[in-house]
Amino acid sequence: MRISSVVVPVLFVQSIPLGSTTPTCRCVYGEDCWPSASDFSQLASQVSQPLIHPVPPESACYPPSSPSGNCTAVLQGTFDGNWRSNQSGSMQNTNFESYYFPNGTISACYLDTSLGFPCEQGSVPIVGIDARSVGDIQAGVKFASNHNLRLVVKNTG
């Protein structure tokens, strides 16, 4: 029985710890503070399932000249909430999969491949845990806390 998927994302987020008035930044993928491959290997040894590497579901339609996955399934299911809930890299609403940078640029993977934009990760976390037990959830929460990462919980409902 699947409990939920705990996903450790790569997003920049500001949070204000209780009792503090100064915002602190979470670690972002690519920064020196990002956990090492060894850190992720250690996490992988603490959970019951292999770590997952979610991608936007629309990535199956890229590159347009030779799609990497089942683009037909994406086209048929992209507006179906049940289908979306079963995709590890999918949010309920597609706009939440896009990441807006402070300079106004956007990282996203659009269903309409004719726009000419590349498929990018957007706000979709790049690594996660397919949690099947309380221990898996605890390991994910502890890892996120120890490495100053934002924690996202995706549940199939």
Descriptive notes:
This protein has 157 residues and is α+β, with helices and mostly antiparallel strands. It has two domains: 87 residues; 69 residues, no CATH class. The chain is 22% helix and 11% strand. The strands form three sheets. The chain has a three-stranded antiparallel β-sheet with strand order 6-1-7, with helices on one face. The protein starts with a strand and ends with a strand. The N terminus is likely disordered.
Q: What keywords describe this structure?
A:
single chain; 157 residues; alpha+beta; 2 domains; 3-stranded antiparallel beta sheet; 22% helix
Topology:
Layout: E1 5-8, E2 14-15, E3 24-25, H1 37-46, H2 71-77, H3 81-85, E4 99-100, E5 106-107, E6 127-129, H4 134-146, E7 152-154
Antiparallel strand pairs: 1-6, 1-7, 2-3, 4-5
What's this, in brief?
With 157 residues, this protein is of the alpha+beta class. It has 4 helices and 7 strands; from the N terminus they run E-E-E-H-H-H-E-E-E-H-E.
Instruction: Specify the number of helices.
Output: 4
Total number of domains: 2
Strand content: 5-15%
Number of strands: 7
Ends: how far apart? 13 Å
What spatial form do the alpha-carbon principal axes imply?
Answer: globular
What kind of sheet is the major sheet? 3 strands, antiparallel
Order of helices and strands: EEEHHHEEEHE
Which value, in Å, is the CA radius of gyration?
16 Å
How does the helix and strand content classify structurally? alpha+beta
